[in-house]
Design goal:
Layout lengths: L1 H61 L4 H10 L3 E7 L4 E4 L10 E5 L2 E8 L2 E8 L1 H50 L15 H50 L4 H29 L9 E2 H15 L7 E5 L3 E2 L3 H18 L6 E7 L3 E8 L6 H6 L21 H11 L3 E5 L5 E8 L4
Parallel strand pairs: 7-9
Antiparallel strand pairs: 1-2, 1-5, 3-4, 4-5, 6-8, 9-10, 10-12, 11-12
């Protein structure tokens, strides 16, 4: 409940901020526009009034022939007053009780507009009131101010509604994310948006998919690792307890120690393979002479099993590939472990390194019963076993060939099986490199 309330407040806050920014922006812009309109109207009105007054004064000046003519002009220009001055400033005639100010040109003085021109030996000054026009401009200002408030409120309402539409996909994504924790299936984030938020949802869903996959792999890895290690540890513990409890001859002690050593070696192999399966992609390494390294790995493996040299036959020609010795050892040992489980004692395991046009091929063949088509298809999958009923003490870890596939492919190579007339042949090819 607290989380839902927080999300609602956070979403509301974003919506309020968006509405506030848009409303304030519209309000300021609208105020500036109205001020500009008012200033332009006032300026243009004053210019027009002064122009009209100047024309009236110019006509009066051209028709001036005495005080009588000035009275006649007053009738033609109602609302205007005129005063005629001599060049020395003396008042010759005036339509107003109090003569006008002696001015030249057009200007506004307090609430009056003045226009004065010199003509022949007189100066004619005209004046009209600005008060009525000023009152009209104030009415215009009030109208604009009255429009400003409702338009601002309307802009705020539109911004609030638009903010809701903009943030709706976010709300949907948040709701979907909140429900992900309670979903047991593979549902992902959902949104009705088909623009930017759709791409965001797609990116997040891809990330969620990778996280789910990593979690499943980790869970499966932990489960299978625990299961794989349980059997050899139990055998090892039982052997140690039996050795300690029962009197034994030196020969029996040696035999028990050899058995325990075999279990320890099997534990080491399991741990090594499990770690390799969880290891990140391999870093670049310099080219390695496969025929030399594989020959040594085969000898070490044969000696660890106490096999006669005739039981493993190696043949190789020079060929280099970019793979580390540790990685190559995992590949070769897994191939040999699988071959050893099915190879008869009277037929040797055949190991070869053969350079080809642009690749170097490593192959291991046994002469056992062979694999079915289904087994060859699934053998490189994690935790797959050819025979599920096989005892774990004799069977493989179930991830060996999957680790081999990952290692080889990370080095740009391929793995697979062939169908010889007898037994099974597994191979791995690496891109050929020059040392």
């Amino acid at each position: 409940m607290e989380k839902d309330t927080f999300l609602q407040i956070a979403n509301l806050s974003h919506r309020l901020r968006l509405t506030g920014m848009l409303t304030v922006s519209v309000s300021i812009a609208l105020g500036l526009v109205f001020l500009a309109v008012f200033a332009i109207v006032r300026s243009q009105t004053m210019d027009r009034r002064l122009t009209e007054l100047s024309k009236s004064v110019e006509r009066v000046a051209h028709e001036w022939n005495g005080p009588a003519s000035l009275s006649e002009e007053k009738e033609d220009f109602p609302g205007s007053e005129f005063t005629v001055f001599a060049r020395d400033g003396a008042v010759l005639a005036s339509t107003s009780v109090k003569p006008l100010l002696l001015v030249h040109g057009s200007q506004k003085i307090r609430h009056q507009l003045y226009a004065g021109i010199d003509y022949k030996d007189v100066t004619v000054v005209g004046s009209s009131s600005w008060l009525e026009t000023e009152a009209g401009l104030k009415q215009l200002a009030l109208v604009l101010a009255g429009l400003w408030l409702p338009i601002t409120i309307l802009a705020g309402a539109v911004a609030w509604y638009g903010g809701g539409l903009v943030l709706r996909p976010v709300t949907e994504l948040v709701s979907s994310a909140d429900r992900l924790s309670s979903w047991s299936d593979e549902r992902l984030l959902e949104t009705t948006d088909h623009a930017e938020f759709a791409h965001l949802a797609q990116s997040l869903n891809q990330m969620i998919g990778r996280v789910r996959h990593a979690a499943k792999v980790q869970e499966q890895f932990a489960s299978d690792a625990a299961h794989e290690l349980r059997s050899p540890l139990a055998v090892l513990r039982t052997g140690i307890e039996a050795t300690l409890l029962n009197p034994r001859t030196p020969e029996q002690h040696e035999e028990a120690l050899r058995s325990m050593l075999g279990q320890v070696e099997r534990l080491g192999s399991i741990v090594e393979t499990l770690l390799a399966s969880a290891r990140a992609d391999s870093d670049p390494v310099p080219p390695l002479a496969l025929e030399l390294v594989v020959a040594q790995i085969v000898d070490d493996w044969r000696i660890s099993r106490d096999w006669d040299a005739s039981r493993v036959v190696f043949s190789g020609r020079p060929g280099s590939a970019s793979v580390s010795e540790d990685e190559l050892a995992i590949v070769v040992r897994n191939f040999l472990d699988n071959a050893a489980r099915y190879s008869p004692t009277d037929r040797p395991i055949d190991v070869r390194v053969e350079p080809m046009d642009s690749e170097v091929r490593l192959s291991v063949r046994d002469f056992g019963p062979g694999l079915s088509t289904e087994a060859k298809t699934q053998a490189f999958q994690r935790f797959y076993r050819v025979d599920e009923a096989r005892n774990r003490q004799d069977g493989g870890v179930g991830i060996g060939l999957a680790v081999v596939k990952r290692i080889v492919e990370s080095r740009g190579g391929r793995v697979g099986f062939e169908n010889p007339s007898e037994g099974t042949l597994v191979w791995a090819v690496f891109p050929k490199m020059e040392e």
